[in-house]
Amino acid sequence: MGRKRRVGLGVGAVVAAAVLVVGLLLFEPWLLWVDDTVDEDLPDAVPADATTPTGGPPGQSTSTVAEWTELSSSGFVSGEHGTSGTARVVRNADGSLQVWLEDLDTSNGPDLHVWLTDQDSGGDCGGCSDSWGIYDDGRHVELGALKGNRGDQRYDVPADADLAGLVSVVIWCDRFNVAFGTAAVDRIT
């Protein structure tokens, strides 16, 4: 084997190794076999008119206030990856809004986020070729990085967020611009 051929094979091996490393760092394929389970405390599902005592002097009646009120609840629709569970939008007694993901089960992936968007759940974009990539085409509100691909978790909705017209919760992969799953929401304002 000639010297040029050995140098060429060496350069080819270095280039192949570099491409492999870049590909691994970009796609993070090991995440497909790693589950991050989150188990944040979510109150039991109770009717919106359920109340808890606020307290008072003994012998006097006490008033009650709801700890939280459900504004919307919907099951997830699978997108680019199988996704199940429930997205619940609640208003807490202090007026703050949260999105609760209950029994979430989706694939792990790089750069996953939870969004509220103005795109309909289900990926239907009227015949476009990129039905799971439409969720960044309109307006969205970022709620934070996905805490885990499985389990129960809470996300605060920013107090100054304009929620008018937002109709779905999305598990969004920012690295590849696709929705892993979506859930329809309504009455969130």
Written description of the protein model:
With 189 residues, the chain is mainly β. The chain has a single domain (34-184), classed as Immunoglobulin-like. Helices cover 13% and strands 35% of the residues. The chain is built from 1 helix and 12 strands. It has one helix spanning 3-27; strands spanning 37-39, 52-53, 64-65, 68-75, 77-78, 84-92, 97-105, 112-117, 140-145, 150-156, 168-173, 178-184. The chain has a 5-stranded mixed sheet, with no helix packed on it. The termini are far apart. Residues 44-64 are annotated as: Disordered. It comes from Nocardioides panacisoli. Keywords: Membrane, Transmembrane, Transmembrane helix. The chain crosses the membrane at residues 7-27.
